[in-house]
Amino acid sequence: MIPHSLRLHFSGDWHDWLLTLKNILLPMYCKICHSRLLTEENLFFCPRCWEASPRIERPFCSFCGKPHQGVAGLGEQSNFPCADCRGKPNLFVRRIWGCAQYADAISRAIRLFKFYDKETLAEPLAELMLEFAEKEMDPEAYDCLVPVPLYPSRERERGYNQALLLTEGIAGFFTTAQLDLSLYRIRPTRAQSSLKSAERAENVRGAFAVRGDSLEGKRVLLIDDVITTGGTVTECARAMKRAGALEVDAFAPALAFATIRLDR
Ligand SMILES: [Zn+2]
Ligand SMILES: [Zn+2]
Question: Relative to the alpha carbon of 67, which ligand is closest?
Fold first, then answer.
């Protein structure tokens, strides 16, 4: 007679059974608190650490996306521009949407996702974006979803473009939008994360261009894995505006909002 708890454990399909076996042979531990992970939902973080990573909630700046200090807990209050953005419309990126602060489990997840070939993190990160979009964004607000492109040799080396994986993961929410891959990198750039704030704008200046005219007159949502200084999304938006895009907003799972400086 198999004990009840074990029966439950082994009663799933082959996939569950293999997962159980994998858990025994190759135990997985949370990268933050080192507790044992028992599901495959998120291979690197336990649900508690994942949930504890600070989310961006209302009210936040309606241009740069950073949360307003000192007004936390106001819940349903509508969003408004922060002191840095007030009266200074952005030249290229109209507004930035971000789901979480670039901190704790989410910043670890994004670094793993980008630099260590951990493709499986696309799913929990896209899930985070969908949760945010359902609360804050209009599913019909955009015509085109554009991932920040990698230079082809970089993409070959990594095996995937992390921004494209996120874009595919959230595409179902944006009912009027099509995936558009006409934005590309003209030249290789150094990883923004390896540079000081002042060097980042220079590193990506003029690095992007658009093929064809599919963005002409379109409302574009540009997607990246993290927005740190805003240099990359600004340059992408500049190229897309030059190619006739009507407006460009940017969306990322995380914002390092202490450092965001938009070109105005
Ligand atoms: Zn944990
Ligand atoms: Zn702002």
Answer: 2
